[in-house]
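thread from #wetlab-drylab

HS: before we spend reagent money on co-crystallization trials with pyridoxal-5'-phosphate, can we at least see a predicted complex? here's what I'd submit
DV: go for it
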Amino acid sequence: MPVSQAQRVLPFFNYSHFFQSQEEELVSIFKDVGRRGAFILQSDVRQFESSLAAYTGARYAIGVANGTDALIIALRAAGIGPGDEVIFSSHTYVATAASIFFAGATPVAADCMADHMLDPDSVREKITQKTRAIMPTQLNGRTCNMDALRAIADEHNLLIIEDAAQGLGSRFKGKMAGTFGIAGTISFYPAKTLGCLGDGGAILTNDDQMYAKMCLLRDHGRNEKGDIVAWGLNSRLDNLQAAFLDAQMRRFPKVVLRRREMASQYQALLGENARLTLPPAPEENTDHYDAYQNYEIEADNRDALREYLKANGIGTLIQWGGKAVHQIPQLNVKASLPVTDRIFDRCLMVPFNMSMTDDDIHYVCDHIQAFYRA
Ligand SMILES: *Cc1c(COP(=O)(O)O)cnc(C)c1O
């Protein structure tokens, strides 16, 4: 396709697309929930929790207010607090480290590998007498090598709590992100692969005791009878959002397939370009089944590429505002992480969402190729 084709406007993410593409159904859900007056912890939350548990294969799913609360609640329920250290990948959202901080523990940053996922060797180097848990981020819709992390956790008697905010639908050796440790968390922020119309989150667990504690923590410490039996927070998934999400859940397997197809298209159109490093292709390593929450490339001359794409109507994003957690001086999470540093000089997310057509992907790739030819 010639690059001279008519200019398009391709925002990095189209926030109104989800609503507009399903407006009628969403409005009817809103009316139904509203007419029932079913706003807080009603049947729609339970229904969505059971859909999510069935999809992931987790014994339990608990809807909470957002993905960050999910992490804090999981850490607190696991008994992690002051004096404890938790190892996380610095290539993650600040929320991962913040949840460790707000649980009262110390976040310890580790490096990632060429595929941007937490490096088990780096985790090993960070272990001290105080380490209690590993918190891998299932980044960009990919699940870490959980065999390697499990081996380290077992050897050192550590818990695994997954930040699977971006991981829903991805698998390692057939097992779903969020189901490997004592708990795993999901975010339903609108731009996530399963997004709602506001904030939302969930925690997955197979552990009966964790489940019971986390149910109390999300709802003021109230048990099923409404008696207060522990300290708790208010971090409930809105019943209305749960109703929207349950409708989305039915389409979700198709969403994952479409995202894998889009990744294959990017791979076919950009794979030969030596100035770029692409994410692993869908069929590259059969241990991994990726859901492609994001398509995060590494690019030579990244900032100029970004400007060039912007001038052609193509929105891009450098993840986390351009800084890994250990690179944010005010947070004082110091570490020497050469691979993460190198990635943050080059990483860029290209438009990758359900509002895009195959033609749009060609448009983006044509312009990337034109930039390097010039
Ligand atoms: C989105 C995200 C979160 C936070 O989720 P919220 O629902 O916005 O609180 C945490 N970790 C990662 C890796 C994320 O991408």
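DV: Residues 239-270 form the longest helix (32 residues).
HS: ok that's useful, forwarding to the group
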